[in-house]
Design a protein that fits this description.
Blueprint: H1 10-16, H2 18-31, H3 38-50, E1 56-59, H4 62-72, E2 80-84, H5 90-97, E3 101-105, H6 116-119, E4 127-130, H7 142-151, E5 155-159, E6 167-169, E7 175-177, E8 184-188, E9 202-205, H8 209-219, E10 223-225, E11 228-229, H9 240-250, H10 253-271, E12 277-278, E13 293-297, H11 302-311, E14 335-336, H12 341-349, E15 350-353, H13 361-377
Parallel strand pairs: 2-3, 2-4, 3-14, 4-5, 5-8
Antiparallel strand pairs: 1-9, 6-7, 8-9, 10-11, 12-13, 13-15
Helix pairs in contact: 2-9, 3-9, 4-5, 4-8, 10-13
């Protein structure tokens, strides 16, 4: 059966803010400033304000953001960077691209995120940085990770592509936005992200102003003054049309997060008592903005449930079917930082249900009923 329910409803989201989006795009077209210009600087300033004043440098996409972050830290070929084994490939891909060594560590089975406990045994004399990925919409448990990083003088690069707007509460009660706690934060504005544009886009957050300036130079061919290239950089730009779209959507980000949270809690309310199904856990220290609503389907029934949903016109996705240590590209270039059994088990059992800002209880009831029907039959 053809899917009748979208996995992500970007068109419905657009229709609710259409006049503002159309006006913002028209303003860029009328200005003729398509690369750089006021739309980009305005969005960067507004995002910085949203994040409590953390400097923001925009770039072309989230993968570029991660690569630029590593370039800015002056690492050398052979240096090691710790990354979770269960994540999208970009988090580790950029490590390898720069001749660094990815060190793959296991994740927490409840949150899918790496922890200080999984990172600590993997630290070696060559370790220079940790990339905690705030997977599916909630922060890693950052306070112990930051203590561990400080103990070993390691950089922390937060991969915040899926968790923009999430907040972490420290033991002393103060809070911080995801992406602003480590050395550098990186995010993606891919269309399906919680804050997404209508093409590609990304950004870096650097609490240290001097580091932010270095990042800005790297993203602009290593120059501060045009045609004067002080360091080796790259060409990574957020175009003005995308910046204008993002500036409009940023005004709605908290509203979007709340809509996702309501939808997630509705799913959990109706699915949490099903034997063989594990609903997403929420870390007490972090809010969860639910980029994905990801279940674990136990006893080898994940693929059967996915097929059952598809037969009823309901999409679902597996993020991610192969952990990094099972990817051919990483077999010989990475180091295994301990037991990776949880990452393997997650890859074999995760299934994400439709999750977006336009979900209604009626739509969710269709999904929920199909899930319940499957477990009654299996």
């Amino acid at each position: 059966m053809e899917n009748s329910i979208p996995m992500v409803d970007l068109h419905g989201q657009y229709l609710r803010i259409k006049p503002d989006i159309d006006a913002a795009m028209q303003q860029v077209v009328d200005s003729g400033a398509f690369i750089g210009g006021p739309a980009v600087s305005t969005f960067a300033a507004h995002l910085s304000d949203y994040l409590g004043g953390c400097p923001v440098v925009t770039c072309a996409n989230g993968t570029d953001a991660l690569q630029i972050a590593l370039m800015a830290l002056g690492l050398h070929p052979g240096d090691e960077v710790i990354v979770p084994a269960f994540t999208y490939v970009a988090s580790a891909e950029v490590i390898a691209l720069l001749g660094l060594t990815p060190v793959l560590v296991d994740v927490d089975p409840a949150t899918f995120n790496l922890t200080a406990a999984t990172v600590a045994p993997a630290i070696s004399p060559r370790t220079r940085a940790i990339i905690p990925v705030h997977l599916f919409g909630q922060c890693c448990d950052m306070e112990p990770l930051l203590r561990l990083a400080a103990e070993y003088s390691l950089h922390v690069i937060e991969d915040n592509a899926q968790a923009i707007g999430a907040q972490y509460t420290f033991g002393d009660g103060h809070t911080a936005f995801s992406g602003t706690m480590g050395t550098i934060g990186c995010t993606s504005f891919f269309p399906s992200k919680n804050l997404g544009c209508y093409g590609d886009g990304g950004a870096l957050f650097a609490p240290d102003a001097q580091l932010a300036e270095r990042i800005r130079m790297i993203a602009n061919h290593g120059q501060r003054v045009k045609y004067h290239h002080d360091i080796i950089g790259c060409n990574s730009r957020l175009d003005a049309l995308q910046a204008a779209i993002l500036d409009v959507k940023l005004r709605h980000l908290d509203e979007y997060s709340e809509a996702r949270q309501r939808a997630a809690h509705y799913y959990t309310e109706h699915l949490h008592n099903i034997d063989g199904l594990v609903c997403p856990a929420e870390l007490s220290q972090s809010t969860h903005v639910y980029h994905q609503y990801t279940l674990r389907v136990l006893d080898g029934r994940r693929d059967a449930l996915k097929a059952h949903l598809a037969a009823h016109g309901i999409p679902s996705m597996v993020y991610y079917p192969l952990p990094l240590h099972h990817q051919e590209a990483f077999r010989t270039i990475s180091r295994i930082g301990g037991d990776l059994s949880v990452a393997t088990a997650c890859a074999d059992s995760v299934l994400s249900l439709p999750m977006h800002t336009e979900l209604t209880p009626a739509i969710q009831d269709t999904v929920i009923d199909a899930v319940i029907q499957f477990f009654k039959q299996h």
